[in-house]
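Private note to self, pasted from the team thread so I don't lose it. Backbone tokens:
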């Protein structure tokens, strides 16, 4: 008999067909008002879950006593209680690697858009304000040749370092749990304490995973250490930054600007003060959101799920101690 899975993220026809050939799939559309109720109904029979952006709390997991695997279509696993899943004997998998380059592209898109005021000035043109050539009031700031400070030197941090050093002739500074000699050799990067990086970088890019030790990593004190002309780029998680302190710093022009793809509350509320600020570029968590990368992530999650349900070690196992 086929195992049963609950799918709560839309898949391409090809991937869905591949999945349906091997397991019985119950589709739950979490965007619908009855999504959560339908998920609850489906959980008791489920051996696997495949989806993203759902906080799987213990009340939901209690409904799924047969659950063997949760295949997340994401690299970040901060919305799962890994210890609880482990205690229950449920494997958790993620989708690293396939989104690295795309997410680094997003970081650079935000960095460039904020530095060169792309969104603000494109709106200005659309609104019919371009009547004469521009003066300094509309100038941006250079990216090439500046100092790129990367907080978190994992795969995405390294992909940013490569773009900065090779593409834009930037000096790369980084802070991570430990120095990475291979990154230093490849990109001429320099390891710094977080405080030193904040004080020296023209662009501070956050790429750390959200955890107890990175929540609120950048607060009022850290923003106060940044140079007034510096720009903060967050492609990590909203909660890595104290958003209220950031709003204060941006309002006071304590820093030049921020390019933000992630927020404490997502979707970002329409009345968020961040949306009132012309020195902010806000995007809707598009880090990995390209056709190619989302398909690759979904494929990776399907492979993880099918491996786990057939008794093999899934390629991207997050929870420890299996098989
Ligand atoms: C991830 O995979 O964790 C990303 O944030 C989702 O785009």
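Design output:
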């Amino acid at each position: 008999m086929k195992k049963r899975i609950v799918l709560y993220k839309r898949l391409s026809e090809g991937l869905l067909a591949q999945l349906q050939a091997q397991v019985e799939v119950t589709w739950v559309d979490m965007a619908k008002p009855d999504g959560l109720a339908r998920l609850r109904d489906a959980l008791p029979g489920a051996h696997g879950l495949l989806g993203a952006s759902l906080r799987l709390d213990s009340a939901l997991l209690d409904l799924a006593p047969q659950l063997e695997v949760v295949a997340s279509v994401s690299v970040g696993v901060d919305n799962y209680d890994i210890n609880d899943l482990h205690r229950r004997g449920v494997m958790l998998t993620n989708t690293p690697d396939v989104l690295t380059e795309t997410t680094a592209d997003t970081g650079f898109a935000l960095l460039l858009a904020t530095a060169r005021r792309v969104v603000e000035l494109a709106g200005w043109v659309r609104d019919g304000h371009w009547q004469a050539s521009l003066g300094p009031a509309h100038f941006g700031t250079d990216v090439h040749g500046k100092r790129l400070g990367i907080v978190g030197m994992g795969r995405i941090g390294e992909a940013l370092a490569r773009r900065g050093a090779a593409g834009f002739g930037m000096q790369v500074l980084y802070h991570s749990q430990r120095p990475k000699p291979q990154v230093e050799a490849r990109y001429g990067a320099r390891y710094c304490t977080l405080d030193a990086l904040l004080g020296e970088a023209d662009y501070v890019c956050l790429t750390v995973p959200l955890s107890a030790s990175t929540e609120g990593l950048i607060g009022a004190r850290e923003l106060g250490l940044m140079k007034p002309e510096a720009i903060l780029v967050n492609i990590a998680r909203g909660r890595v930054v104290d958003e209220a302190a950031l709003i204060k710093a941006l309002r006071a022009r304590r820093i030049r600007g921020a390019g933000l793809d992630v927020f404490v509350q997502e979707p970002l509320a329409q009345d968020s003060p961040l949306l009132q600020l012309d020195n902010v570029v806000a995007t809707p968590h598009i880090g990995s959101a390209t056709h190619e990368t989302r398909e690759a992530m979904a494929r990776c999650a399907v492979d993880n799920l099918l491996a786990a349900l057939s008794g093999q070690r899934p390629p991207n196992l997050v929870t420890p101690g299996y098989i």
